[in-house]
Amino acid sequence: MERTLVILKPSAIAREHAGEIISRFEKKGLKIIGIKMMQLHEDILREHYAHLVDRPFFPSLLNSMMALPVIVIGIEGVEAVTVVRQMTDATNSRKALPGTIRGDFGMSGQENIIHASDSVENAEIELKRFFADGELFDYPTKKFLYSPDEA
Ligand code: UDP
Ligand code: MG
Questions:
Q1: Could you read off the pLDDT of 55-72 as tens digits, one per residue?
Q2: With a 6 A CB cut-off, is 110 part of the ligand 1 pocket?
Q3: CA quadruple 65, 29, 142, 76: dihedral positive or negative?
Q4: How confident is the model at residue 151 (pLDDT cuts 50, 70, 90)?
Q5: Which ligand 1 atom is nearest residue 65's CA?
Q6: Whose CA is closest to atom 22 on ligand 1?
């Protein structure tokens, strides 16, 4: 089973879409293995967005991510990283397809509602960044979600 990290960004919290977005993951059959609200600060964001610190929009991204508390979610499922990225879609919400989270909930490239890990390797690093030991849980999966050979 793969695990991935989703962050409901301040844009999702401000616009009160948290419940609907969490509901999408549940309906899909992805398992929530950890969830909490937290206020992000510059240090953790410089780590999390290390690939972007030199970009001109980085100060604006920092402000955006610190503007309100966020909700961090650990999600588990077969190929969960790819499935969640597909449900998220393009960075620019205006280019994201209808039916996807960014496509349905936003109009912005920066205020794009959620973060989703982009690889299995990064997902494990990011889960450790945002969740302490004991904050991610293991519990039984409902029947009829996977065939025996898939799960
Ligand atoms: N971002 C931005 N302007 C850009 C590119 C990215 O403000 O031109 C922000 C946006 O909020 C995005 C985040 O930086 O979600 C991380 O960028 P990345 O390229 O990793 O996109 P993502 O993986 O979130 O689709
Ligand atoms: Mg990214």
A1: 999 999 999 999 999 999
A2: yes
A3: negative
A4: confident
A5: 11
A6: 91
